[in-house]
HAD family phosphatase (Nocardioides glacieisoli), 278 residues
Amino acid sequence: MPIRLVATDLDGTLLHDDLSVSPRTRAALDAARAAGVQVVPVTARQPIGLRQIAEEAGFDEWAVCSNGALGVHLTSGEVIFEQTVGVAVQRRLASALKPLVDGLLFVSVRDGGEGFVPQQGYTAIAADRDHKRDVATMGSHTLEEVLAEPSLKLIVRHPDRPVDELLDIVRGAGVAGFAATHSGAPFVEVMAEGISKAWGIARLCDRLGITAEEVLAFGDAPNDAELLAWAGRGVAVANASAAALAAADEISPSNEEDGVAQVLEKLLLQQSVVIPTA
């Protein structure tokens, strides 16, 4: 069955480690689009972070953001779905985690990903790269304020605990009603129950009339595992996490070696599409 949609993660997958889009990758993306293939970024980033590389990658149509919780058109701004974590669930989770780990800090990402409400002390351990936002603009809020409104994504972070260890603690806290993962960044990402990149891209594909078998997906991190397993063809880059590698159908060269571009080049060659040399 021909591929009609490419769903690709960004950080650690499509992008080089310096967060750039290589000329080879841009040429492959453009050739795929010219051949009638939809190219959709599927990312933990919010639209504010995606806009930073959208022009470089040629992204101006649909995107799935916030680990699958938000489906948005990058040009028109149309939102086709937005799933949030409820206030009651957030408060139960924070209360359950308090006796388990001292020193946790929380952030509520809300308002379609534009709002960023960090707990007091969070900016001291954050970097611009973490959330694709200027740390100086983040502000400072009480935990009550952080948890007072539903979140598109609730961030849970500790200054010292490894993120894999923290993810196990969050998942084992005995609270229902949420999904948790991480994207390779130094914090756990909490979404509404049932939300994953696979859930988000499936919703978009339903709208576009595309089946899972017609989707080629790329990823590297634990938050990509469901997407790679769901897609008709799931490709993990060579630098991927164990969870992504286990979920994938195949492994490509790494992000630094333009693994996504190499797979797309072979796919398009099979369809007699010539990619101009960048």
Summary: The chain has a mean pLDDT of 94. Residues 87-192 form a domain with the Hypothetical Protein, Haloacid Dehalogenase-like Hydrolase; Chain: A; domain 2 fold (CATH 3.30.1240.10).
